[in-house]
Write the structure tokens for this entry.
Amino acid sequence: MKAHGEDDGHDGHGGHDGHGDDEAGPGTGARIPLPRASVEDGGRALPEAAPVALEHQVLTSLLGAWALAACSAQETAAVEDHLGQCEACAEEALRLREAVTLLQRPESLDLDPALRTRVLDGCLERRPPRIPVPEWATPYDAETARLDALLQDFGDAEWHAPVRLRWFEDDGTASRRTTVAGVIAHLLTVDGTVAVALGLDDPLGDITAPSRAPAVRTEAYWRASHYPPTRAVRAPWRGQGHSIVRTVAFTGDAGGMPVSYGDFELPLRDAMLDRAFECWVHAEDIAEAVDYPYEPPSARHLNGMIDLAARMLPGVLAARRRAGLAAPGDRPHLVAAGEPGRSLRLEIEGSGGGEWLIPLDSPGAVGSADHEVAHVALDGVEFCRLAAGHVPPAEAAAGQVGDREAIRDVLFAAASLSRM
């Protein structure tokens, strides 16, 4: 409906009359002009910037700004038109453009591996969680998240890329060929030892494994699969990881619950570190298989992994000695549990570094600087790769001082920590 006396703005032919758009007639309200059509909207080509006429001296002074792409459209057109005519300015422009590329170093598009930890720490400082994840479980939480981020963009070809798992066994190298999906299946089954200890479902389900040993569980899972593992294994592995972290947060336990690995046990807090370590090691195996860079864990988490290995070394040394794989030493000094004994100083340099005194003659002895007979220096990441069986013991130590036999035994014991 229209108000009384209102003009409808149309002529008798149904179109605009062409005269009432710019001024209002008697009794007619002011018109709102229609929006002006844009060149881009009409599909027409944008007008080219015409070069302005500038003197040679002015054009020369603009070369630096042109190299930095800081000139206006007209100035850019003028400079580029001039460069086609002046050889001296063209050479100077080329030199400046090459210099500009040196001002900004190319940066990797990969996210900093510590970014997730920094973001979470920042968030938690502002709003602490009602039920926090225990400190001893955060390395596992971080490493599973990092590996999952690596996997998320994999296509079928990457999931079936061949991967060779390597470890140290019987004082020699051992390996097993599988695929990226097979590695995730391996992590799923071995993480399942922690899940079972926490009362969660065993990923093996109805599959029967002769023992809880990690390699035995993995082989049983692989054999029971009708087809080689595919990308479908990612969801249960990631879901199990979330369940483990959530459950340990609710337990309120200090991490002392035993987790069985078949022929040995670890307290829950150490088992979580062990699983974080293996997740990182196998993530590197996967990244190497698909030719993708992968960074080590954060220094804090790496330090925890090194500390776990250092604490396990005396027991491994004793087991190797019982098996005849390690010499008793020229002057063994057996002492009662809790007493100081012959020791090797393990110095870890770089990220996650520190110093550990390793008792040599008895797993119950206490490392002592007064009884130090040898000193070994290693890079932190290199030590972890030794403990993963990826570096031969004879090639690992950067610095060695003291009892050579003790040094050899400790390096071989570190490599013996590895397994499939």
